[in-house]
Structure to design on (492 residues):
DNA sequence: GACGTTTAATTGTCTGACAAATGAAAATTG
DNA sequence: CAATTTTCATTTGTCAGACAATTAAACGTC
C-alpha cells in the first residue's frame, strides 16, 4: 500500500488502512511485532506523531496492542470474542439510538434472532445454562427489583439462552443485538402483572429447553415477543395520550 | 469523567472514553461540535497531540468526523448502517480467521440466522428483491464464472434474501455474518455439479419467496445448509487424505 | 550462580512551529 | 448598492525535537 501525501484523506488514516489491510490479508500475523514507531515513520516517510495517530486508530479497533519498554512495540492482536463483543454492543446501541429505530423493529429483530438459536439451545443446553436461566427468572420474581435491574436480569437470561446454543459466532452476533436493545427496554415501566407474565414465560422456556423441546421453546419465544411488543405499544399509546392533553 | 495521569491506561484512551461516554449518554448530541483541539487540551490538561490521538480513536469507530477550516472541528457523527456495516464485516472476518472457527460452526450460525429472517422475507419481499435473487442465481449458472465470482454472487443472493425482510437491524446483523464467511467459502472449489445443485436451490428459494411460502423457503435453507456443509466436509476429507500421503 | 545495577530500546507525553483549508469579514469595484 | 475579490482569523494536519516512564536484557559484583 502506497501513501499519497496529496490525497484528500489523512495520512494517518491511509497508514492505518495499509496496516489493517496487511492484517486482514494475513501478511501480518497474530502476535507479530510491527516495526517501531520511528521505523514506521521512516518507511512511510511521515513524522512519528502521524504514525502514532494511525496506531491509535488500529488500537481503537483492537487490531493491535502496544507495550512499552525495551522489547515493547505494537503487536497484531488476536481479536477475541469478548473485545469484539464490547465494540459490537457500543456500535449497535448507537445505531439504534441515532437512527430512531422503532421499538417494534428492534424487538422483531431480537426475537427473530433468538428463535434462530433456540433449536440449537434446546439440543445442547447444559445444566449450567439451565441453572443460570432459572436463577435469573427467580431474581426477576423478587418484589423489590428496580426496572433497570429487571431489564439487566432479562438480558442475562437471554444471554444464557443464546450461549446455550454453544456456537460462539451466534453468541457474538446475538448478544450484541440483545444487549443493544436494553436502553429501549429500560424505557418500559414494568408493572407487577407484566413482570409476572414475563417470569412465567421465562420459566416455561427454561423448562422447554430442559426437556429439549425445541417446538415449545419456539412457541414461547413467539408469545414473549408478542407480549413485549403489546406492552411497548400500550406504553407508547399512554405517552402519546399524555402528550395530546398538554 | 475525570482524567487520571497516574492511571495505567493511556491518557488518549481515557479521553476517548470520556467523550464516547458523553456521546452514548446523549450529553453530546448528533452533529454537535466538540471544543477545538486546543480547548480540549486545556480542559483535560494534556497536550494537543494527546487530544488528537483520542480523537483519532473515536474517528476510527466513526463516532466523530473532523473538518478543517474556520468553522471546522470535530463533530459527533450520525452513525449510519453502511459505516457500521463495514466495521462489522471487518471485525467478524478477523474474528473467524483469528480464532480458527471451524467451517461447520460458521456455517451453522449463518444458516440459523438466515432462517430467522426467511419468514419475514417471504412476507415482505418486493419484486426488486426477487429480481435481484433471480439475477444472481442466473449469474451463478454461467459456465465461465470463477470460484471467487461465484462466492461473491452467492453473498449478493443471500444479501437480497436478508434485505427482503425489510428490517435494517436484521440486515445489519446478518449481512455482516454472511459476508464474513466469504473467505471461508472461497476456500471451497465448486465443481460444475455442486454449482448446479446450489443454483437449483437458490432458484427454488426465490420461487418460494415469490409464493410467500415461508415453510418451503425454510426447508430449502435447511437443505442448502446441509449441502454446503457436506461439500465442505468432503473437501476437508480430501485435503486431509492428501496430507496423510505426504 | 544469585542478585543488584546499568543500559539501550521503545512507547507516552509535551512544546512549539508551520502548512493547508475554509468560511467570514473587509475591502474593492462596477 | 450589489457583486466580487481580498484579507484574515480559526482550526485541523503535519512536522521536528525533546524528555519521561517503562521494560527487558546485558553487565558486574558478591
Amino acid at each position: 500500500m502506497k501513501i499519497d501525501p496529496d490525497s484528500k484523506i489523512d495520512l494517518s488514516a491511509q497508514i492505518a488502512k495499509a496496516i489493517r489491510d496487511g492484517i486482514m490479508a494475513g501478511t501480518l500475523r497474530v502476535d507479530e511485532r510491527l516495526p517501531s514507531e520511528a521505523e514506521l515513520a521512516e518507511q512511510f516517510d511521515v513524522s512519528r506523531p502521524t504514525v502514532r495517530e494511525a496506531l491509535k486508530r488500529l488500537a481503537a479497533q483492537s487490531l493491535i496492542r502496544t507495550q512499552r519498554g525495551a522489547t515493547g512495540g505494537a503487536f497484531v492482536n488476536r481479536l477475541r470474542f469478548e473485545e469484539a463483543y464490547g465494540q459490537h454492543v457500543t456500535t449497535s446501541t448507537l445505531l439504534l439510538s441515532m437512527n430512531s429505530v422503532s421499538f417494534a423493529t428492534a424487538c422483531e429483530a431480537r426475537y427473530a434472532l433468538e428463535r434462530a438459536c433456540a433449536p440449537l439451545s434446546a439440543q445442547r443446553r447444559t445444566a449450567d445454562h439451565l441453572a443460570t436461566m432459572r436463577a435469573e427468572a427467580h431474581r426477576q420474581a423478587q418484589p423489590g427489583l428496580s426496572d433497570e435491574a429487571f431489564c439487566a436480569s432479562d438480558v442475562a437470561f437471554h444471554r444464557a439462552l443464546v450461549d446455550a446454543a454453544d456456537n460462539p459466532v451466534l453468541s457474538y452476533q446475538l448478544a450484541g443485538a440483545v444487549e443493544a436493545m436494553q436502553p429501549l427496554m429500560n424505557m418500559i415501566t414494568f408493572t407487577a402483572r407484566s413482570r409476572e407474565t414475563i417470569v412465567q414465560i421465562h420459566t416455561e422456556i427454561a423448562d422447554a429447553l430442559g426437556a429439549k423441546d425445541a417446538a415449545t421453546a419456539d412457541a414461547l419465544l413467539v408469545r414473549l415477543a408478542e407480549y413485549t411488543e403489546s406492552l411497548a405499544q400500550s406504553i407508547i399509546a399512554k405517552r402519546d395520550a399524555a402528550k395530546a392533553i398538554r
Q: What stands out?
A: The beta strands of chain A are 64-67, 73-76. Chain A touches chain B through 57 residues (CB under 8 Å).
